[in-house]
Amino acid sequence: MASSLMVVLPLLLLVVCPYAAVSYPAGTCRYTRLFSLGDSLTDTGNFASLSPNRSVLAFPYGETFFRRPTGRFCDGRLIVDFIAEALKLPLSTPFLLGKTAEDFRAGANLAVSGATALSQQLFRDMGLDLTILPPYSLDVQLEWLKRVLHMLAPTGPERQDIMSSSLFLLGEIGINDYNHPFFQNRSFTAQIRPLLPKVIKKIENATKVLIGLGAKTIVVPGVIPMGCVPRYLTIFQSNDPGDYDAAGCIRWLNDFAEEHNRALRHMLDHIRPRDPTVAVVVYADYYGAILEITRSPQKHGFRKDVALTACCGDGGPHNSGKLIACSATSILCPDPSRHISWDGIHLTEAAYQFVARGVLDGPYAAPSMLSKCRR
Ligand SMILES: *[C@@H]1O[C@H](CO)[C@@H](O)[C@H](O)[C@H]1NC(C)=O
Ligand SMILES: *[C@@H]1O[C@H](CO)[C@@H](O)[C@H](O)[C@H]1NC(C)=O
Ligand SMILES: *[C@@H]1O[C@H](CO)[C@@H](O)[C@H](O)[C@H]1NC(C)=O
User: Fold this and answer.
1) Ligand 3 atom 5: the closest Cα is on which residue?
2) Cα(75)–Cα(340) distance, rounded to whole angstroms?
């Protein structure tokens, strides 16, 4: 019974991802901790702890699952929460909310909403308004990780044990490197697109740093389809039907997201250790998962008429106008579980759950994270 699964799953993965066929080392399915880095797709409270007056700490954030705002830019749980749940791990403490080793026994969430892969200084040099661009880029989050590791295990061998038995979710990170300049009217061709190779280099460095620290399982997600995001649909609306694909998403923005993801996968294929006992590096295809529910919403329990409309927002065709986040005075949908977009930028818990399942069980990860657990 188990052996047939073992044969079928790797074959499926080869079809999905012919260039990145890797397998897990035997018997390493159970993790003791989860460490995550990234931005608001993964932040479970760091950003909110820095700015207690932000709307993310008010209704209706958290209304579906926690029944109170938690600092997550969502109506409920994020992908990282679903992954922890599936692996039977407690939710890890946001770095800025923990103090002692005990707080980080289950790992740490180092992600900060608004964070970029590249340093904040680079965006300062571009002349951007930094109000919602925190100085906690990928390199800073890696330094936080080192501090947590030092707290958990002052000696080398202890730290090795922790690194090898933990799961690392490296991202999603990078979309804010594009979002911030896009939202501040910067030129795509002259200023935004040239950032792409630098962003990939930063993620490459972070992956190598984690492997160097002894991480054995690293999941690196790509960016989401930006052309299907309500806020982008509002900002870059066009009268030319040729600018849109069959699902109503903006082609050139999705092409750009795909370009980022191709470069990311190519980089990972290049640096992934040949020997999976050294480290397994998984690419998580958030893009493919979200495109699937956007193109076939009804098949997955979402409403077709609002597939490109925020559940909570300030009106307009996509219910997403100028405001960055939604609030108690926003136009709120009756049932977030049938929407893909929560607040015009971030996704609903229902959408995150679909992505998480696709990463855990396949086909939206190569290899799928749980395939090695089924024996
Ligand atoms: C947060 O809000 C409270 C009350 O609404 C106000 O007194 C305080 O000055 C605000 N803090 C910041 C940092 O804006
Ligand atoms: C790589 O990451 C580390 C953080 O651990 C940082 O100190 C270093 O500057 C980074 N190098 C590059 C080239 O980005
Ligand atoms: C961006 O440009 C639009 C229209 O040209 C303008 O309405 C808006 O205020 C600008 N935003 C910023 C942040 O400069």
Assistant:
1) 185
2) 11
CA distances from 214 to 72, 84, 168, 264 (A): 29, 21, 11, 21
Summarised one tens digit per residue, pLDDT across range 172-208 is 999 999 999 999 999 999 999 999 999 999 999 999 9
| Local structure of residue 35 (DSSP, 8 states) | E
Categorize the per-residue pLDDT at 302 as very low, low, confident or very high, splitting at 50, 70 and 90. Answer: very high
343 part of the active site: yes
pLDDT in tens, 244-256: 999 999 999 999 9
Q: Would you call 180 a catalytic residue per the annotation?
A: no
Is any atom of ligand 2 closer than 6 Å to the C-beta of 361? no
Cα 185 to ligand 3 centroid, rounded to whole Å: 6
Q: Which of 32, 25, 24 has the alpha carbon at shortest distance from 161?
A: 32
Catalytic residue among 180, 343, 368, 371: 343
Which protein residue has the closest C-alpha to ligand 2 atom 1? Answer: 205
Q: Chain-centre distance of CA 104, in angstroms?
A: 21
